[in-house]
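User: Batch of two.

Assistant: Item 1 of 2:
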Amino acid sequence: METPQYIKSLLMPNGKKPAGRRVWSIDLETVWLPFFTATNTMGETNIPSEALGAPLRLAYNPDGSVKFSKTGRPVTKVAKELSDNIRLVRENFTASLQAYANGVIAENPEGYKADQTGAHRAPLPVPRGKGGDMPKPKWATPDRQAHLIKLFLRSQGFCVFGHKPCPYPEHHYELFIESLIKDWVAEDRARRQAEWEAERKALHSLGERRHPLRGQFSAIAKDAFYADQPEYYLEGIGISGLTFRPFAKVRMASSFMRLHIDLGDSLKGMSKNAKRKALRHGKLTETAQKLIRQAVRHYLDH
């Protein structure tokens, strides 16, 4: 028996690897739709145009809500008119394969039996754990699932950017949502890490007020600073409009309190240039500085 040409063509490698939605492991967009469009053209089938134009449908629960899989993705199905014809092709294809196998058995039973005896039985898979309902993934929030439904309704299960035909496999709905879900998982992981860091800091915090390291004092540096800090700061010198005598305006250290100290006759005997420097630049004589220190000490003591 000579092997038919269609059987040989089935066993030849094909470099094309479709990445879209598959029905019976065959790409829907690049194989089934062109095939049934051609059969409609030749009058072999009568599939409605809406089934060929939008072959994918959302699956719904009995209450009318969109059905989601255990992995959080929307469940889609092929239009009934299209799936019925695909099932018919599958059954006929299966029958042709069985007919070929029966023909080989009838013509060469010894060779078939020898190959069948030499074949090794595959080991049974080892069961892992108990079955049951898979928990809902953490990324599958209602907003994200609604976004997946919106993408499906806009793309009809094909290119999410509307390319027809789409030259980019990653634009296909099923591949696109996988990359989108990966981004959501990474985003949730980063958010949980940030929340854990904040919680850890809150658990180990002593409730103390924290400052940046730069510009702040330690306990020893603070004592040294206040020990070397002057008791007052000279803000200016002027002539009183009431007594027509010189006075000094000083601000107490670490305070908003200001003192107006009468300098008396401490500026007498000074040259005109020295008086000008004293009034403009605060260059006081030792006598004036002594009066200021005495007034500040009197204020602090009382």
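Item 2 of 2:
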Amino acid sequence: MLILFSAWHAACGARVATKWSQVLSDDVMGAEFEEPPGRVLLLEASPTLRLMIASLLRRWGFTVDEHRAPGADYDLMLAAASIGDPALDAARQAARAAGVPWLALLPASGAALSADADGWVQKPIVAEALHHAVRLCLERRSLSHRPDGLDLAAIAALWGTTGNATFLRVSGVFIEEMAQRLSSLAGALAKTDRDLLTIEAHSIGGAAANVGCATLSLASRALEHEAAGAEPRRLASLVGQVQAAAATELAALQALVAEAR
């Protein structure tokens, strides 16, 4: 009996180890970011959750502050909309007022996301989801300083690979497609059709990435990521970001096409 129990215990242990290796795989736990990691402000009342998140961020190369340092320049803040600790809530509000990008930590109950958050990750925290959310926020921040958001390297690659005539044709088809999809996106928002919002955001993001409209692609990916659960005000904000990026980048792409003719 003891031998049978020992064998069963070992088998269970192997299954648990396999499960954890899938959830906390080396690919995710040790994943690096394309841009050099920066400084993160982590505001979380639970010492357990704070330690877990901070450990992941530090493993990915970030410097993590668990209290706001006076005069510090943060690349990202992770915090709930209402932390429940007056000092931490005040630090969150001060960091937000200073323009620090905010990745909201949502409870497992799926509470509504604040409309001015730049992204979100839901508890219980999964390493892969956290990595994706942090990367997306940082990518959007890095592109926000570009005047038109175009990825000139991607455009040059497309242009050089396909030739001038094909580039012009692809760009023209993309511009026409965006007019149709942006109209559909606005209609989906008016009806709060989350399925259609997700579909259109996915299509816009994929097409935009292939023609070098980087900011539009990232804004669309953020909408796709949040469309199913975001509150109406947040949905309107995300769609507005897609529309604003489209207006800027389509105009820049049209100007580039005109020069190439």
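The beta strands are 39-43, 63-65, 76-79, 102-106, 119-122.
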